[in-house]
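My convention is simple: the sequence line spells out the residues, with the fold written below as integer tokens. I include a record here:
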Amino acid sequence: MRIRVIFKLKNKGAVLPFHHQSLICSMMRNVLGISYSYENTFFSFSGLKGQTKVGRDGLHYFSKRVTLVFSGLEKSFMDKLIERFFFFPEIRLGDLILAPEYVEQEHHEPLGKEVRYLCISPLVVYHGTSISKNKEFIHPTTDVFSDLLYESTILRMERSGIFKPYEISSLFKFQLSPDIQYLERIQLSEKKFARIYSTIYKNEIKEIRGYTFPFTLYADPIVQEFVYCNGFGELTQNGFGLLDLAESSLVKREIYYGKPDEETDYSSLEDTRFNKL
């Protein structure tokens, strides 16, 4: 299930750090309750999407409304999350004061064996006990990069318990192909598509390397559905590895919960899937 939670921003101009997945994790803990356990739930989420300006302290949000995208395996978890969001008239995310307004559910066309994706949260290919290896740069054009994601994906699919062993054993066709032109443009502009991020894992602060770039994945449609709906790579529950389809025409939305203000022109809300995050 894939949803977009739309919030009214009550203090326009407030700032979030450039990477604020840890703040969203804390917000979810507060919303669900500290005692709520979702460690074995398969899901991921985006950064906060909206009209922003870059400042010294991070991203200044100036749109009237902002959006968080959540995607996961269990509808019951998503419904619980929505229920708890709307239990509070206001929710704090860092310095931002948010008021939940409504929820859209996304529906997509069946995915094939070749799908082009955008990263709307950083993609982590390795996460282990080695501090240096967690931060090691692996170029996306290498087989090592693709192989690590294949191993991560297969292990997560096995842990989900929804695939039979014979299905898993047949999923050996897998290759990630990055957008070379995009990588070249980023390097020429002296920007970065790979950075070190901090996150909290098992009550410890960890530093890991995350990547943000468009790519094409060649894999069985079963694999495509799994990574699109549950996140791709490691630490997805910490808000890493959420993908969007590059072909936005394949995605349809419908109101799932709540009702937007009929006097507001929502068509003016721009698509900020890639360049804003």
Notes: Residues 143-160 form the longest helix (18 residues). The first strand starts at residue 2 and ends at 9. Residues 265-277 have pLDDT under 50 and may be disordered.
